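Posting this for the archive.
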Amino acid sequence: MLKTAQESWSTTNLSLQEAEAVYPEWICQGRVTQLPPRSEWQTWLILGGRGSGKTRMGAEWVNGVAQAYRPFATRASCNIALVGETLGDVREVMIDGPSGIMKVSRAERPRYEMTRRRLLWANGATASMFSSEDPDSLRGPQFDAAWCDELCKWKNVQETWDMLQFGLRLGLSPKQVVTTTPRPLPLLKHMLADPAVQVRRMRMQENAANLAPGFVSHVNNLYGGSRLGRQELDGELIEEREGALWSRILMESVFSPDVPELKRVVIAIDPPASATKKSDACGIVAAGIDEHGMGWVLADDSFAPAKPHEWARRAIALYHRLKADLIVAEVNQGGDMVAAVIAAEDPHVPVRKVRANRGKALRAEPIAALYEQGRVRHAARLAMLEDEMCDFTHNGLSSGRSPDRVDALVWALSDLFGRLQTRPRVRVVG
């Protein structure tokens, strides 16, 4: 359950009049995830989907640091940079938008000086406008705070960012907030890899109470679970790895929830060698084939850490739920133990033991070719499986871990298509 900031902040020491005055403020109305990090920080990166409340967070933070409102700041920031894709975006979204600085400035609104392209508060704090279209405009000015909105849309992203960093040199502890929907840009990936950067992630669903009725269900029905939906609604960083056997575009094209009657269904298991917290996952994938020879990936029940009796029970439950024909189990790691564990849980479940005698990539290549030929469909959005597929190259996964979901997928489809291809055929000899 999402908590509001009020639930984590006590008002018991305030008078009724003070409490009534404080209640409309962000400290009470915002979510806990929308408040600044408590630890010391210089860069706060907020990755959020559309409508998740990230712009409101940036605007509240600017207003808070300009007027020294807790918990945003203990002293006012006097020189703030507002950086957007264009000057029009800075004005229409960051300043005058429905979640912009003017909207959230309840006690005192800053004055907008059009000729100087800046906001001016009564205490002398200023927020100046800058555009990613003109990185050199950041040469010379100095700041003690900055708000960068939709960084992943910036036109000259690296040059603009670099110029801003040189200018953040005023005050005792200059800070910058970055609010953006993620895209796989080198700068963003570098920031995510930097342990000094505080990262906050938010989904549109978390802010549903502040969005138009019916909007959330509408866009979720259209885009939920898709590559676009995961990026634009859930704020996930969806990467495309060069040399991967499967692509993101291909994954979008194979989704088809209308599954016909299937001739065969199998459950494939790629069991881990151990069951510690650092062990690989147990790959469990269900797939079937219809009368036209189309393969259907039905489910991905992979999980970790996975003890033998746990993965056996999960695979058996999936076998019964989908009324499968058999379980295909790789026995390289556990030998006869794999079949024995399944038999101990349910002796009536048929098991076909398979042993890998080629590398993972070589086994996966024919299956990737089936996808390219349009012979495989996915009956559901299988985000974790598809992420692993689009990260799998001949050198393995980028993380260096075992591709357990891909392995289970390959075993399942290999069994279905392999048996299809080995049926007797009639040849006419002239």
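DSSP finds 15 helices and 14 strands in the chain. Residues 118 and 128 are 4 Å apart (CA to CA).
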